[in-house]
Amino acid sequence: MSGPLDSVTGALVGKALDVSLATHQTIANNIANASTPGYRPLKVDFEEVMGRVRSAVESGADDDSIRSLLSGVDATPEQDPEATSVQLD
78-79 and 42-43: which strand pairing? Predict the structure, then answer.
């Protein structure tokens, strides 16, 4: 019998929190470097990252497949190709 922390829901919430943390750290990094000449802002697209997981859940994937997908979800910040400077608004 698995406990509540072993459930797929627990794994999804944990991954969502990880992605949210990465997003907030990226925003803090962008603010800290806003006045650095030539700095290009970074971004973590929460919806894109978690959208892949959402589509697996909606397709009826089994628990092991969802856990496997979650282990491969990466929330590494990337340069924002559309931004040339940090916009503090």
Answer: antiparallel
